[in-house]
Every structure is written in C-alpha cells, then in structure tokens.
Amino acid sequence: MPAVSEDATTATAHATGATGGTRPLRVLIAADTFPPDVNGAATFAEQLAVGLAERGHEVHVVAPSPTPNHGSFDEEHRGVTLTVHRLKSHKWPWHAWFRFVWPWTIRPRTAPILDAVQPDVVHIQSHLLVGRGIVQEAHARGIRIIGTNHFMPENLLDYMPFGPRTLPVALKIAWRDAAKTYRLADAVTAPTVLAADYLRDAIAGQQVLAISCGIDATRYTARNGRPAGNDIVFVGRVAPEKNLDVLIRALPLLPAELHATVTIVGGGEMIPKLTALVRELGLEDRVRFAGFVSDEEKRRALTNGTVFAMPSTAELQSISSLEAMASGLPVVAADSMALPHLIDGNGYLFRPGDVHDLAAKLTQVLTAPDEEYEAMRARSLTMIEAHDINRTLATFEALYRGEPVA
C-alpha cells in the first residue's frame, strides 16, 4: 500500500474490521459542493467518485441540488454514470453560486438514503452541513466513516457577514463544530501534510492522514520545447482569495521586451473588478479572461503556457497547480499555506501580496536560459508522479476497508 506522507509525524489509521475483504464496495460520498460547482473540493469529490466507479465499486453521491429540482438522479460525470442524491438547496446570499441545505433538514433527508443504499462506508468532504448531518446518521447505524477536510476559513471570509470582532468567535465555534463531526469518523484525512497539521491543531490533536487529492497526469500534455511567446497562465475560480489583482499589477513590471501576456482560465465574481483594473492599467491587449471553458480547452491553455502563476494565499493543495505541473509548466506561487510543498526546483515562491517580488520571480522564469527553463519543466513532471490519482484511490480503498495506511 503506497505511503501517503513523507512526514514521520503523520498519523496511521489502523484496521477496525469494519469492511475488510476484497469485494467491490458500496461507497457513499457526501459533499457540500459537487459539479457543476467549480472549485477544488468539488473537483476532488467528482474525481474520487468517478475513479472508484471505474475500479468496480458502486458509488453514490449526496450533495445539494444546483437547481430547484431535487431527488435521486443518474448523472454523467467525466463519461461515467453516477447515482447522485440531490438535496433541496438554497442560494447563499453573500456568494455568487454557492448553495446550501438547511441544517435541520439534512438528517431526515439523508437517513432514508442510507437505509436504501446501505453503504459499506460514508466519505464526507467537509464537516460544514451535509457532512455533519449524514455523519450522525451513519454513526447511529454503525457505518464506517471517513472524513476529508477541504475547509479553509480564508476561503469563506469574503462571503460571511462577520466583522473583525465577531469573526474570531465565529471561527472558534466553526472549528468546535468540526471537532464534534470528525471525532465520529474512523479516519480523517487532508490533502497535504500542512493541511493535516492545520486540521489536527484546529480540532485538538485528532489523528489526521495526509493524502493527496491526486490527478490523472496522463490527461495532460507537456509540449516539446520552449513556447515562442511568454504567456503566464492561471487556472481556477476568479474569487477574492485568489489575489489575481496581484498578478495583473505585476504584469506591467515585467521587462517590456518579453511581451508577456496573462491568460486567466475560469469564471467568478471578481471578473468585473479585474476587468476594470485591466482597463485602468491599459492592459486590455495583454490580459485575456477565458472564462469557464471545457476540460480540453483548459488543458490546451496549460500546454501552450510558458509559466503558471498561483497568487492565492488560501490553498490546502491547489489542484490547478498540480495540473500545471502535469503539463510541464514551471510554477511561481505565493509562499503561503500548502503552495511551498509544490515548489522544489520547478519554479519560485514569492512573498504573498508583493507585486514587485512576483514580477521578479516571473522574470526569472521567463528570462532563464533554455537549459534552466527545461530543467524546471522536467522537475514539474517528476514531482507530479507522487500525486498520481491511482495511488490516491488505492489509499482510500484501504481506508474504506479498515486496512492500515502508513
């Protein structure tokens, strides 16, 4: 069984005998966000569900409905048909797209699903709403529970009606609630060692395993040779915590002879403000907002890019950075949260929020001699091997069966 961390302090989950054996499992994945939502947690939940189904397991998903229609549906995700149980949801008033389920409705709505499906294991993707409610019902039925945390407070601060005085109290209450949920789980995981440490501290020392979200690197293409242009690519939600204004402000500080451009792939509520900033700086011919695109178009943008930039300060892993590495791109990322774990000879870290430092690090990549530039590309491709999705799936299968995972 593959190791999931190089950190000796990472906990080990021991066998409980809850499932065992080698037969295909019936897995129920519960999430507060799932495609068509576009974010890291939704991407991982979909990738996990599809990967498990392709390995022969019966997979069910419980998630909020993105429309007024709710119930159980056969949905196609990445070419695989999944049974998705959509709960009646409501739009979060402070967010462009997020929908939530009233907390007091979750247990009565998920209990019949558990009784009908009778899963071997319930795998929650957060403790916030759906996860918290269904865990209580699963625990009462003696069903094995795995909890994965993708939650970062910084990702929610801009969408909550809390002031600077009430926010610390709100976060304390939120983490206390998280601890109650995760303590009912047979194993708790997070995407990186740093995220595992963060969660372990937040919920008072509970054991947490570091397991990469993983990606299917075979779906990405690294081009041969150095691109003719100097296109700086970002992929992800165009949201406040991504700090894309820092990237846009850094662009005019790069040497003019580079003729550098920025391509932003993804949609989000910050596009109007960032578009206005681009006009203010006179960069209309150098910054392109691609918006929501197909997976094929996204992969093409990465393949044709010269360097990937990630200015966010709230990343527990950053799947889009992994996608860039699988595409053979050097990476320039903020020295914050989990991003430093992705930089090791394949690019540079810059001081978070420092426009001049970001410009300097991008310049180092774009002006690097061909041999040095190719070495950064090769290093990205080497590093991505540790994040292979099959390794992630095999590790979760072991956890589902109650087998020990180092």
From TrEMBL:
Domain Glycosyltransferase subfamily 4-like N-terminal residue range list: 38-219
What's a Pfam family in this record? Glyco_trans_1_4
Question: Which GO MF terms does the UniProt record name?
Answer: glycosyltransferase activity
| Record keywords, A-Z | Glycosyltransferase, Transferase
Q: Which InterPro entries match?
A: Glyco_trans_4-like_N, Glycosyltransferase_grp1
- Gene3D superfamilies from the UniProt entry: Glycogen Phosphorylase B
Please, which domain of life does this record's source organism belong to? Bacteria
Q: Which SUPFAM superfamilies does UniProt cross-reference here? A: UDP-Glycosyltransferase/glycogen phosphorylase
Database matches in PANTHER family:
SULFOQUINOVOSYL TRANSFERASE SQD2 (PTHR45947)
Please state what the protein is called.
D-inositol 3-phosphate glycosyltransferase
List the source organism.
Curtobacterium citri
